[in-house]
Design a protein that fits this description.
The chain has 580 residues and is an alpha/beta fold. The chain has 3 domains: 153 residues, Nucleotidyltransferase, domain 5 (2-Layer Sandwich); 147 residues, Nucleotidyltransferase, domain 5 (2-Layer Sandwich); 210 residues, Alpha-Beta Complex (DHBP synthase), CATH 3.90.870. Helix content is 37%, strand content 16%. It contains 22 helices and 20 strands. The chain has an 8-stranded mixed sheet, sandwiched between helices. Strands 3-2-1-4-5 form a 5-stranded mixed sheet, sandwiched between helices. Strand 7 and strand 8 form a beta hairpin. The radius of gyration is 24 Å and the shape is globular. The two termini are 40 Å apart.
Length: 580
Protein backbone atom coordinates (compact mmCIF):
# COMPACT_ATOMS: atom_id res chain seq x y z
CA UNK A 1 0.00 0.00 0.00
CA UNK A 2 1.56 3.25 -1.18
CA UNK A 3 -0.08 6.55 -0.21
CA UNK A 4 0.93 9.98 -1.50
CA UNK A 5 0.16 12.89 0.85
CA UNK A 6 -0.02 16.29 -0.77
CA UNK A 7 -0.34 19.91 0.36
CA UNK A 8 -0.88 22.57 -2.27
CA UNK A 9 -2.51 26.05 -2.36
CA UNK A 10 -1.83 26.63 1.36
CA UNK A 11 1.49 27.53 2.95
CA UNK A 12 4.11 24.80 3.50
CA UNK A 13 3.37 23.11 0.19
CA UNK A 14 4.92 19.66 0.04
CA UNK A 15 4.53 15.89 -0.22
CA UNK A 16 4.87 12.71 1.80
CA UNK A 17 5.13 9.18 0.46
CA UNK A 18 4.06 6.37 2.79
CA UNK A 19 4.73 2.74 1.94
CA UNK A 20 3.02 0.11 4.10
CA UNK A 21 2.87 2.55 7.01
CA UNK A 22 6.50 3.68 6.81
CA UNK A 23 7.53 7.11 5.46
CA UNK A 24 9.60 6.84 2.31
CA UNK A 25 9.94 10.59 1.68
CA UNK A 26 8.76 13.80 3.38
CA UNK A 27 9.71 17.01 1.58
CA UNK A 28 8.63 20.64 1.60
CA UNK A 29 8.59 22.43 -1.71
CA UNK A 30 10.29 25.50 -0.21
CA UNK A 31 13.53 23.54 0.02
CA UNK A 32 13.50 23.33 -3.77
CA UNK A 33 11.85 26.54 -5.02
CA UNK A 34 13.69 28.59 -2.31
CA UNK A 35 10.53 30.53 -1.31
CA UNK A 36 9.83 30.40 2.41
CA UNK A 37 6.50 28.74 3.24
CA UNK A 38 5.71 28.51 -0.44
CA UNK A 39 2.15 27.94 -1.68
CA UNK A 40 3.21 26.75 -5.11
CA UNK A 41 2.12 23.41 -6.46
CA UNK A 42 4.88 20.99 -5.35
CA UNK A 43 6.17 19.99 -8.78
CA UNK A 44 9.75 19.58 -7.62
CA UNK A 45 8.84 17.48 -4.61
CA UNK A 46 6.58 15.26 -6.71
CA UNK A 47 9.36 14.63 -9.22
CA UNK A 48 11.72 13.59 -6.44
CA UNK A 49 9.05 11.36 -4.88
CA UNK A 50 7.77 9.77 -8.08
CA UNK A 51 10.54 10.19 -10.65
CA UNK A 52 11.32 12.94 -13.19
CA UNK A 53 8.27 12.05 -15.30
CA UNK A 54 6.17 10.88 -12.35
CA UNK A 55 6.53 7.35 -13.66
CA UNK A 56 6.02 5.92 -10.15
CA UNK A 57 2.57 7.53 -9.86
CA UNK A 58 1.12 4.28 -11.20
CA UNK A 59 2.42 2.61 -8.00
CA UNK A 60 0.41 5.00 -5.79
CA UNK A 61 -2.86 3.54 -4.49
CA UNK A 62 -4.38 6.74 -3.16
CA UNK A 63 -3.61 10.47 -2.80
CA UNK A 64 -4.50 12.08 0.53
CA UNK A 65 -4.87 15.75 1.40
CA UNK A 66 -5.08 17.25 4.92
CA UNK A 67 -8.36 19.10 4.26
CA UNK A 68 -11.89 17.71 4.57
CA UNK A 69 -13.86 19.49 1.85
CA UNK A 70 -17.31 18.85 3.31
CA UNK A 71 -16.31 20.27 6.70
CA UNK A 72 -14.46 23.13 5.08
CA UNK A 73 -17.35 24.23 2.88
CA UNK A 74 -19.74 24.22 5.81
CA UNK A 75 -17.29 26.19 7.97
CA UNK A 76 -16.59 28.70 5.21
CA UNK A 77 -20.31 29.21 4.55
CA UNK A 78 -21.04 29.81 8.21
CA UNK A 79 -18.09 32.20 8.50
CA UNK A 80 -19.37 34.32 5.64
CA UNK A 81 -23.14 34.12 5.79
CA UNK A 82 -23.42 33.96 9.55
CA UNK A 83 -21.80 37.38 9.95
CA UNK A 84 -23.38 39.41 7.17
CA UNK A 85 -23.01 42.29 6.37
CA UNK A 86 -19.65 42.63 8.17
CA UNK A 87 -18.24 39.46 6.62
CA UNK A 88 -18.48 41.02 3.16
CA UNK A 89 -15.05 42.45 3.91
CA UNK A 90 -13.80 38.96 4.72
CA UNK A 91 -15.28 37.64 1.47
CA UNK A 92 -13.85 40.55 -0.54
CA UNK A 93 -10.43 39.93 0.92
CA UNK A 94 -10.64 36.23 0.05
CA UNK A 95 -11.52 37.06 -3.55
CA UNK A 96 -8.15 38.77 -3.94
CA UNK A 97 -6.33 35.56 -3.08
CA UNK A 98 -6.68 32.06 -4.46
CA UNK A 99 -6.06 30.18 -1.24
CA UNK A 100 -9.62 29.93 0.11
CA UNK A 101 -11.15 29.08 -3.28
CA UNK A 102 -8.45 26.53 -4.07
CA UNK A 103 -8.98 24.73 -0.76
CA UNK A 104 -12.76 24.63 -1.14
CA UNK A 105 -12.37 23.22 -4.68
CA UNK A 106 -9.25 21.29 -3.77
CA UNK A 107 -9.78 18.00 -5.61
CA UNK A 108 -10.66 19.68 -8.89
CA UNK A 109 -7.78 22.12 -8.48
CA UNK A 110 -5.33 19.26 -7.91
CA UNK A 111 -6.49 17.41 -11.00
CA UNK A 112 -6.18 20.58 -13.07
CA UNK A 113 -2.67 21.32 -11.79
CA UNK A 114 -1.48 17.78 -12.40
CA UNK A 115 -2.79 18.08 -15.95
CA UNK A 116 -1.55 21.58 -16.77
CA UNK A 117 1.79 21.61 -14.93
CA UNK A 118 2.83 17.96 -15.18
CA UNK A 119 0.83 16.57 -18.10
CA UNK A 120 -0.83 13.93 -15.90
CA UNK A 121 -4.47 13.25 -16.77
CA UNK A 122 -5.23 10.15 -14.70
CA UNK A 123 -4.82 10.19 -10.93
CA UNK A 124 -5.38 7.63 -8.19
CA UNK A 125 -8.42 8.25 -5.94
CA UNK A 126 -8.15 11.44 -3.83
CA UNK A 127 -9.11 11.10 -0.15
CA UNK A 128 -9.66 14.20 1.97
CA UNK A 129 -8.60 13.96 5.61
CA UNK A 130 -9.71 16.57 8.15
CA UNK A 131 -6.91 19.02 8.89
CA UNK A 132 -6.74 18.43 12.63
CA UNK A 133 -7.13 14.69 12.15
CA UNK A 134 -4.02 14.84 9.95
CA UNK A 135 -2.13 16.69 12.70
CA UNK A 136 -3.37 14.24 15.34
CA UNK A 137 -2.37 11.22 13.24
CA UNK A 138 1.28 11.85 14.06
CA UNK A 139 0.40 9.88 17.22
CA UNK A 140 0.63 6.75 15.07
CA UNK A 141 4.43 7.16 14.80
CA UNK A 142 4.91 8.41 18.37
CA UNK A 143 6.64 6.32 21.07
CA UNK A 144 3.31 5.82 22.88
CA UNK A 145 0.74 3.06 22.76
CA UNK A 146 -1.75 5.39 24.45
CA UNK A 147 -1.65 9.18 24.76
CA UNK A 148 -3.72 12.33 24.95
CA UNK A 149 -3.29 14.47 21.83
CA UNK A 150 -3.58 18.26 21.71
CA UNK A 151 -3.74 19.93 18.28
CA UNK A 152 -3.45 23.73 18.12
CA UNK A 153 -2.97 25.91 15.05
CA UNK A 154 -4.41 28.95 13.29
CA UNK A 155 -7.39 27.05 11.94
CA UNK A 156 -8.27 23.85 10.15
CA UNK A 157 -11.35 22.90 8.21
CA UNK A 158 -13.62 23.01 11.27
CA UNK A 159 -11.46 23.83 14.30
CA UNK A 160 -8.56 25.82 15.69
CA UNK A 161 -7.89 23.59 18.72
CA UNK A 162 -8.79 19.91 19.10
CA UNK A 163 -8.28 17.33 21.83
CA UNK A 164 -8.02 13.61 21.11
CA UNK A 165 -7.21 10.34 22.81
CA UNK A 166 -5.08 7.85 20.92
CA UNK A 167 -4.95 4.13 21.68
CA UNK A 168 -3.13 1.67 19.44
CA UNK A 169 -4.23 2.31 15.87
CA UNK A 170 -7.35 4.32 16.80
CA UNK A 171 -7.81 8.04 17.54
CA UNK A 172 -10.96 9.64 18.96
CA UNK A 173 -11.62 13.38 18.99
CA UNK A 174 -12.91 14.52 22.37
CA UNK A 175 -13.69 18.18 21.67
CA UNK A 176 -12.78 21.09 19.43
CA UNK A 177 -13.14 24.85 19.26
CA UNK A 178 -14.45 26.88 16.32
CA UNK A 179 -12.03 28.26 13.76
CA UNK A 180 -12.15 31.86 15.05
CA UNK A 181 -11.80 30.94 18.73
CA UNK A 182 -8.14 30.44 17.96
CA UNK A 183 -5.06 30.71 20.10
CA UNK A 184 -2.97 30.44 16.94
CA UNK A 185 -4.75 33.24 15.09
CA UNK A 186 -4.36 35.58 18.07
CA UNK A 187 -0.63 34.81 18.24
CA UNK A 188 -0.25 35.35 14.50
CA UNK A 189 -2.10 38.68 14.39
CA UNK A 190 -0.26 40.03 17.44
CA UNK A 191 2.96 38.99 15.71
CA UNK A 192 1.88 41.13 12.75
CA UNK A 193 0.85 43.94 15.13
CA UNK A 194 4.38 43.90 16.54
CA UNK A 195 5.79 44.61 13.08
CA UNK A 196 6.82 41.10 12.06
CA UNK A 197 5.65 38.85 9.23
CA UNK A 198 2.92 36.27 9.54
CA UNK A 199 5.47 33.45 9.75
CA UNK A 200 7.54 35.14 12.47
CA UNK A 201 5.81 33.82 15.58
CA UNK A 202 9.11 32.31 16.71
CA UNK A 203 10.67 35.77 16.77
CA UNK A 204 7.95 37.01 19.12
CA UNK A 205 8.47 33.97 21.37
CA UNK A 206 12.16 34.90 21.61
CA UNK A 207 11.45 38.60 22.10
CA UNK A 208 9.05 37.82 24.96
CA UNK A 209 11.93 36.80 27.20
CA UNK A 210 13.14 40.42 27.17
CA UNK A 211 9.80 41.90 28.24
CA UNK A 212 8.23 42.82 31.54
CA UNK A 213 4.80 42.09 33.01
CA UNK A 214 3.22 45.47 32.24
CA UNK A 215 0.48 44.06 30.01
CA UNK A 216 0.09 40.50 31.31
CA UNK A 217 -3.07 41.14 33.31
CA UNK A 218 -4.59 43.16 30.48
CA UNK A 219 -3.83 40.34 28.04
CA UNK A 220 -5.56 37.84 30.29
CA UNK A 221 -8.77 39.63 29.33
CA UNK A 222 -8.16 38.75 25.66
CA UNK A 223 -8.02 34.97 26.07
CA UNK A 224 -9.68 33.44 29.09
CA UNK A 225 -9.56 29.85 30.37
CA UNK A 226 -12.97 28.23 30.75
CA UNK A 227 -14.07 25.73 33.41
CA UNK A 228 -14.41 22.93 30.86
CA UNK A 229 -10.66 22.89 30.22
CA UNK A 230 -10.81 25.05 27.12
CA UNK A 231 -10.59 28.81 26.48
CA UNK A 232 -12.47 31.68 24.91
CA UNK A 233 -11.10 34.52 22.79
CA UNK A 234 -12.67 37.84 23.80
CA UNK A 235 -14.08 39.42 20.64
CA UNK A 236 -14.43 42.77 22.33
CA UNK A 237 -10.79 43.13 21.20
CA UNK A 238 -10.74 41.32 17.84
CA UNK A 239 -12.65 41.61 14.58
CA UNK A 240 -10.72 39.16 12.38
CA UNK A 241 -13.76 36.86 12.31
CA UNK A 242 -15.51 39.37 10.05
CA UNK A 243 -12.71 41.43 8.53
CA UNK A 244 -9.73 39.03 8.45
CA UNK A 245 -6.43 40.75 7.75
CA UNK A 246 -8.13 43.99 6.76
CA UNK A 247 -9.09 44.82 10.31
CA UNK A 248 -8.03 42.19 12.87
CA UNK A 249 -8.25 44.46 15.95
CA UNK A 250 -11.07 46.49 17.41
CA UNK A 251 -10.58 49.94 18.90
CA UNK A 252 -10.45 48.47 22.41
CA UNK A 253 -7.28 46.55 21.56
CA UNK A 254 -5.54 49.69 20.26
CA UNK A 255 -6.73 51.74 23.24
CA UNK A 256 -5.32 49.12 25.62
CA UNK A 257 -2.01 48.33 23.92
CA UNK A 258 -1.30 51.34 21.72
CA UNK A 259 -0.68 51.66 17.98
CA UNK A 260 0.92 48.83 16.00
CA UNK A 261 4.64 48.82 15.36
CA UNK A 262 5.61 49.47 11.77
CA UNK A 263 8.03 47.00 10.12
CA UNK A 264 11.59 48.15 10.78
CA UNK A 265 10.54 50.57 13.52
CA UNK A 266 12.71 50.50 16.65
CA UNK A 267 11.64 47.95 19.23
CA UNK A 268 10.68 49.59 22.52
CA UNK A 269 9.89 48.32 26.00
CA UNK A 270 6.19 48.49 25.11
CA UNK A 271 6.68 46.06 22.23
CA UNK A 272 8.77 43.71 24.35
CA UNK A 273 6.18 43.82 27.14
CA UNK A 274 3.32 43.04 24.74
CA UNK A 275 5.31 40.10 23.35
CA UNK A 276 5.80 38.85 26.90
CA UNK A 277 2.09 39.23 27.69
CA UNK A 278 1.17 37.26 24.58
CA UNK A 279 3.63 34.50 25.40
CA UNK A 280 2.72 34.25 29.09
CA UNK A 281 -1.01 34.01 28.41
CA UNK A 282 -0.42 31.49 25.60
CA UNK A 283 1.57 29.33 27.99
CA UNK A 284 -1.17 29.61 30.63
CA UNK A 285 -3.90 28.57 28.20
CA UNK A 286 -1.91 25.65 26.79
CA UNK A 287 -1.07 24.51 30.32
CA UNK A 288 -4.74 24.83 31.35
CA UNK A 289 -5.84 22.58 28.47
CA UNK A 290 -3.06 20.06 29.07
CA UNK A 291 -3.85 19.75 32.78
CA UNK A 292 -7.51 19.18 32.02
CA UNK A 293 -6.66 16.50 29.45
CA UNK A 294 -4.42 14.78 31.98
CA UNK A 295 -7.24 14.77 34.52
CA UNK A 296 -10.06 13.68 32.19
CA UNK A 297 -8.26 11.08 30.07
CA UNK A 298 -5.97 9.72 32.78
CA UNK A 299 -3.32 9.45 30.05
CA UNK A 300 0.25 9.74 31.27
CA UNK A 301 1.67 10.66 27.84
CA UNK A 302 0.86 13.66 25.64
CA UNK A 303 1.42 14.39 21.95
CA UNK A 304 1.22 18.03 20.81
CA UNK A 305 0.87 19.02 17.17
CA UNK A 306 -0.23 21.90 14.95
CA UNK A 307 1.58 25.20 14.43
CA UNK A 308 1.26 26.29 18.07
CA UNK A 309 3.25 23.18 19.00
CA UNK A 310 6.35 24.97 17.68
CA UNK A 311 6.16 27.10 20.85
CA UNK A 312 8.91 25.22 22.64
CA UNK A 313 8.72 27.38 25.78
CA UNK A 314 5.05 26.49 26.27
CA UNK A 315 5.83 22.82 25.58
CA UNK A 316 8.52 22.83 28.27
CA UNK A 317 6.06 24.24 30.82
CA UNK A 318 3.58 21.51 29.91
CA UNK A 319 6.22 18.85 30.50
CA UNK A 320 7.23 20.41 33.80
CA UNK A 321 3.83 21.35 35.20
CA UNK A 322 0.91 19.49 33.56
CA UNK A 323 1.48 16.12 35.23
CA UNK A 324 2.40 14.04 32.18
CA UNK A 325 5.28 11.59 32.39
CA UNK A 326 6.34 12.41 28.82
CA UNK A 327 5.50 14.98 26.19
CA UNK A 328 6.26 14.27 22.52
CA UNK A 329 6.18 16.82 19.70
CA UNK A 330 7.07 15.71 16.15
CA UNK A 331 9.66 17.59 14.06
CA UNK A 332 6.91 18.43 11.56
CA UNK A 333 4.26 19.68 14.01
CA UNK A 334 3.30 22.57 11.74
CA UNK A 335 1.68 22.17 8.32
CA UNK A 336 5.01 20.83 7.07
CA UNK A 337 3.78 17.55 8.59
CA UNK A 338 0.22 17.70 7.29
CA UNK A 339 0.89 15.59 4.14
CA UNK A 340 2.47 12.85 6.27
CA UNK A 341 -0.34 13.07 8.81
CA UNK A 342 -2.99 12.64 6.13
CA UNK A 343 -1.31 9.45 4.89
CA UNK A 344 -1.01 8.06 8.42
CA UNK A 345 -4.67 8.80 9.18
CA UNK A 346 -5.83 7.00 6.05
CA UNK A 347 -3.53 4.02 6.56
CA UNK A 348 -4.27 3.43 10.24
CA UNK A 349 -7.58 5.10 11.09
CA UNK A 350 -9.49 4.57 7.83
CA UNK A 351 -8.00 1.27 6.66
CA UNK A 352 -7.39 -0.09 10.15
CA UNK A 353 -3.81 -1.17 9.47
CA UNK A 354 -1.67 -1.86 12.58
CA UNK A 355 1.07 0.52 13.64
CA UNK A 356 4.50 -0.54 12.43
CA UNK A 357 7.13 2.10 13.21
CA UNK A 358 8.26 4.86 15.57
CA UNK A 359 9.60 8.19 14.35
CA UNK A 360 13.04 8.18 16.00
CA UNK A 361 14.68 10.61 13.59
CA UNK A 362 13.58 13.37 11.16
CA UNK A 363 15.73 12.44 8.16
CA UNK A 364 13.21 11.61 5.45
CA UNK A 365 14.22 14.09 2.76
CA UNK A 366 16.27 13.37 -0.37
CA UNK A 367 19.88 12.26 -0.21
CA UNK A 368 22.71 13.20 -2.58
CA UNK A 369 25.63 11.21 -3.97
CA UNK A 370 29.32 11.96 -3.76
CA UNK A 371 29.16 12.83 -7.44
CA UNK A 372 26.53 15.48 -6.65
CA UNK A 373 28.88 16.89 -4.04
CA UNK A 374 31.92 16.83 -6.32
CA UNK A 375 29.95 18.48 -9.11
CA UNK A 376 28.77 21.28 -6.83
CA UNK A 377 32.33 21.93 -5.63
CA UNK A 378 33.77 21.83 -9.13
CA UNK A 379 31.21 24.30 -10.49
CA UNK A 380 32.17 26.71 -7.70
CA UNK A 381 35.91 26.11 -8.23
CA UNK A 382 36.34 24.89 -4.65
CA UNK A 383 38.84 22.44 -3.24
CA UNK A 384 37.26 19.55 -1.38
CA UNK A 385 39.45 17.22 0.66
CA UNK A 386 37.91 13.80 1.16
CA UNK A 387 38.49 12.54 4.69
CA UNK A 388 37.84 9.33 6.53
CA UNK A 389 35.14 9.33 9.23
CA UNK A 390 37.68 9.59 12.06
CA UNK A 391 39.71 12.32 10.32
CA UNK A 392 36.57 14.31 9.57
CA UNK A 393 35.21 14.20 13.12
CA UNK A 394 38.57 15.09 14.65
CA UNK A 395 39.24 17.97 12.30
CA UNK A 396 35.77 19.49 12.60
CA UNK A 397 35.80 19.17 16.39
CA UNK A 398 39.16 20.97 16.51
CA UNK A 399 37.82 23.68 14.21
CA UNK A 400 34.81 24.19 16.45
CA UNK A 401 36.94 24.27 19.59
CA UNK A 402 39.09 26.93 17.93
CA UNK A 403 36.05 29.14 17.34
CA UNK A 404 35.42 28.38 13.67
CA UNK A 405 31.87 28.28 12.25
CA UNK A 406 31.06 25.11 10.30
CA UNK A 407 28.41 24.50 7.65
CA UNK A 408 27.44 20.86 8.16
CA UNK A 409 25.70 19.02 5.28
CA UNK A 410 25.05 15.30 5.63
CA UNK A 411 22.78 12.56 4.33
CA UNK A 412 19.02 12.99 3.98
CA UNK A 413 17.51 16.36 4.84
CA UNK A 414 15.29 16.84 7.86
CA UNK A 415 11.52 17.15 7.72
CA UNK A 416 9.98 20.18 9.41
CA UNK A 417 11.07 23.78 9.87
CA UNK A 418 14.19 23.20 12.00
CA UNK A 419 17.68 21.99 11.15
CA UNK A 420 18.40 18.91 13.22
CA UNK A 421 21.93 17.90 12.35
CA UNK A 422 22.01 17.20 8.61
CA UNK A 423 21.57 20.77 7.31
CA UNK A 424 23.05 22.69 10.24
CA UNK A 425 25.51 25.42 11.09
CA UNK A 426 27.61 24.34 14.07
CA UNK A 427 29.65 26.43 16.50
CA UNK A 428 31.19 26.48 19.98
CA UNK A 429 28.63 27.26 22.74
CA UNK A 430 31.38 28.02 25.29
CA UNK A 431 32.08 31.40 23.72
CA UNK A 432 29.60 34.02 24.93
CA UNK A 433 30.26 36.14 21.87
CA UNK A 434 29.58 33.32 19.38
CA UNK A 435 25.90 34.14 18.87
CA UNK A 436 26.75 37.69 17.84
CA UNK A 437 29.56 36.46 15.59
CA UNK A 438 27.23 34.04 13.76
CA UNK A 439 24.65 36.78 13.37
CA UNK A 440 27.16 39.26 12.02
CA UNK A 441 28.92 36.89 9.63
CA UNK A 442 26.25 34.43 8.55
CA UNK A 443 22.66 34.66 9.75
CA UNK A 444 21.99 38.42 10.01
CA UNK A 445 19.13 37.71 12.42
CA UNK A 446 17.66 39.88 15.16
CA UNK A 447 20.02 39.90 18.15
CA UNK A 448 17.28 38.79 20.57
CA UNK A 449 16.84 35.39 18.88
CA UNK A 450 18.69 32.46 20.48
CA UNK A 451 20.51 29.55 18.90
CA UNK A 452 19.89 25.96 19.93
CA UNK A 453 22.15 23.66 21.97
CA UNK A 454 22.55 20.12 20.62
CA UNK A 455 23.58 17.74 23.41
CA UNK A 456 24.33 14.03 23.68
CA UNK A 457 21.20 12.36 25.04
CA UNK A 458 22.95 10.67 27.95
CA UNK A 459 24.42 14.00 29.10
CA UNK A 460 21.30 16.15 28.62
CA UNK A 461 20.04 16.04 32.22
CA UNK A 462 23.51 17.06 33.38
CA UNK A 463 23.17 20.42 31.59
CA UNK A 464 19.38 20.94 31.42
CA UNK A 465 16.33 20.41 33.61
CA UNK A 466 14.97 17.57 31.51
CA UNK A 467 14.73 13.81 31.95
CA UNK A 468 13.32 12.71 28.59
CA UNK A 469 14.61 12.74 25.02
CA UNK A 470 13.85 15.69 22.73
CA UNK A 471 15.43 14.80 19.38
CA UNK A 472 13.36 17.34 17.43
CA UNK A 473 14.14 20.64 19.20
CA UNK A 474 10.60 21.10 20.51
CA UNK A 475 11.25 21.92 24.18
CA UNK A 476 13.09 24.78 25.86
CA UNK A 477 13.92 23.58 29.36
CA UNK A 478 15.86 25.62 31.91
CA UNK A 479 19.64 25.36 31.82
CA UNK A 480 21.12 24.20 35.12
CA UNK A 481 22.66 27.06 37.07
CA UNK A 482 26.01 25.33 37.49
CA UNK A 483 26.31 24.76 33.74
CA UNK A 484 25.32 28.17 32.34
CA UNK A 485 28.89 29.43 32.44
CA UNK A 486 30.02 26.46 30.31
CA UNK A 487 27.61 27.12 27.42
CA UNK A 488 26.80 30.87 27.58
CA UNK A 489 26.09 31.19 23.83
CA UNK A 490 23.33 28.56 24.13
CA UNK A 491 21.50 30.14 27.08
CA UNK A 492 18.60 32.47 26.30
CA UNK A 493 18.06 35.56 28.44
CA UNK A 494 15.32 33.72 30.40
CA UNK A 495 17.73 30.92 31.32
CA UNK A 496 16.31 28.35 28.86
CA UNK A 497 17.78 26.49 25.91
CA UNK A 498 15.84 25.05 22.94
CA UNK A 499 17.63 21.76 23.08
CA UNK A 500 18.09 18.88 20.71
CA UNK A 501 19.07 15.59 22.29
CA UNK A 502 21.17 13.46 19.95
CA UNK A 503 21.37 9.66 19.99
CA UNK A 504 24.09 7.70 18.24
CA UNK A 505 21.57 5.32 16.66
CA UNK A 506 19.58 8.20 15.10
CA UNK A 507 22.51 10.06 13.55
CA UNK A 508 25.93 8.46 14.14
CA UNK A 509 28.01 11.16 12.44
CA UNK A 510 26.24 14.10 14.11
CA UNK A 511 26.55 12.29 17.45
CA UNK A 512 30.20 11.64 16.67
CA UNK A 513 31.15 15.28 16.09
CA UNK A 514 29.44 16.36 19.34
CA UNK A 515 31.09 13.47 21.20
CA UNK A 516 34.52 14.33 19.79
CA UNK A 517 34.06 18.01 20.65
CA UNK A 518 33.06 16.95 24.17
CA UNK A 519 36.16 14.82 24.51
CA UNK A 520 38.35 17.77 23.46
CA UNK A 521 36.63 20.41 25.60
CA UNK A 522 34.74 18.62 28.35
CA UNK A 523 31.46 20.07 27.00
CA UNK A 524 29.31 17.60 25.00
CA UNK A 525 27.18 20.41 23.56
CA UNK A 526 27.31 22.26 20.23
CA UNK A 527 25.51 25.36 19.05
CA UNK A 528 23.19 24.40 16.19
CA UNK A 529 21.30 26.70 13.84
CA UNK A 530 19.79 26.14 10.43
CA UNK A 531 22.09 26.08 7.39
CA UNK A 532 20.70 29.08 5.50
CA UNK A 533 20.97 32.83 5.15
CA UNK A 534 17.63 34.66 5.02
CA UNK A 535 16.20 31.80 2.92
CA UNK A 536 14.80 28.29 3.35
CA UNK A 537 17.19 25.72 4.78
CA UNK A 538 19.61 24.44 2.16
CA UNK A 539 18.55 21.21 0.49
CA UNK A 540 21.15 20.32 -2.18
CA UNK A 541 24.95 20.43 -2.23
CA UNK A 542 24.73 23.39 -4.59
CA UNK A 543 22.56 25.29 -2.10
CA UNK A 544 25.12 24.59 0.62
CA UNK A 545 28.03 25.74 -1.53
CA UNK A 546 26.16 28.91 -2.46
CA UNK A 547 25.44 29.73 1.18
CA UNK A 548 29.07 29.07 2.08
CA UNK A 549 30.30 31.46 -0.59
CA UNK A 550 27.80 34.18 0.34
CA UNK A 551 28.39 34.00 4.07
CA UNK A 552 31.16 34.16 6.61
CA UNK A 553 31.31 30.43 7.30
CA UNK A 554 34.84 29.24 7.96
CA UNK A 555 34.39 25.59 7.02
CA UNK A 556 32.03 23.66 4.77
CA UNK A 557 31.53 19.92 5.26
CA UNK A 558 29.63 18.10 2.51
CA UNK A 559 29.39 14.43 3.34
CA UNK A 560 33.02 13.28 3.52
CA UNK A 561 34.37 16.43 1.87
CA UNK A 562 36.02 19.14 3.92
CA UNK A 563 36.31 22.66 2.46
CA UNK A 564 37.87 25.81 3.90
CA UNK A 565 38.21 29.38 2.70
CA UNK A 566 41.74 28.51 1.58
CA UNK A 567 40.17 26.27 -1.05
CA UNK A 568 38.05 29.02 -2.57
CA UNK A 569 38.60 29.90 -6.25
CA UNK A 570 41.08 27.06 -6.80
CA UNK A 571 40.27 24.28 -9.23
CA UNK A 572 41.38 20.81 -8.18
CA UNK A 573 42.14 18.66 -11.19
CA UNK A 574 40.88 15.35 -9.81
CA UNK A 575 37.54 16.86 -8.78
CA UNK A 576 37.01 18.34 -12.22
CA UNK A 577 37.97 15.11 -13.89
CA UNK A 578 35.41 13.15 -11.85
CA UNK A 579 32.74 15.80 -12.40
CA UNK A 580 33.13 15.61 -16.15
Amino acid sequence: MRILGLVSATHDSGVALLENGVPELVLEEERLDRIKRTKRFPKGSLRIALGPNLERLKEVDVITTPWDLSRLRWTFARAVFGRLPWSLSFLLQSSHTTQENEIVLLNNVLRRKFRRQLGITELPPIVNVSHHDAHAAIFFVSPFEEAAILVMDGFGDDASTSAYIGRGNRIERLWHTGIFNSLGIVYTFVTKYLGFNFSDEGKVMALAAFGGDTYVNAFRELIRPTPDGRYQVNFDYFSYDAFGELRPFKRRFIETFGPPRLPGEELTDRHRDIARALQVVTEEIVLHMARDLRLKTNATKLCISGGVALNCVANARVLEEAGFERVWVPPCASDTGAPLGSTLWHYHQTLGRPRCMELTHPYYGPTYSEKDIRDALAVAHLTGERLSELELLERVARDLAAGRIVGWFQGRSEMGPRALGNRSILADPRRAEMKDIINARVKHREPFRPFAPAVLLERASEFFHIDQPDPFMTLAPRVREDKKHLIPAAVHVDGTGRIQTVERSANPRYYGVIETFGRLTGVPVLLNTSFNQQEPIVETPSHAVSCFLRSGLDVLVLGNYYVTRNGQSRIVCDLNEVAT
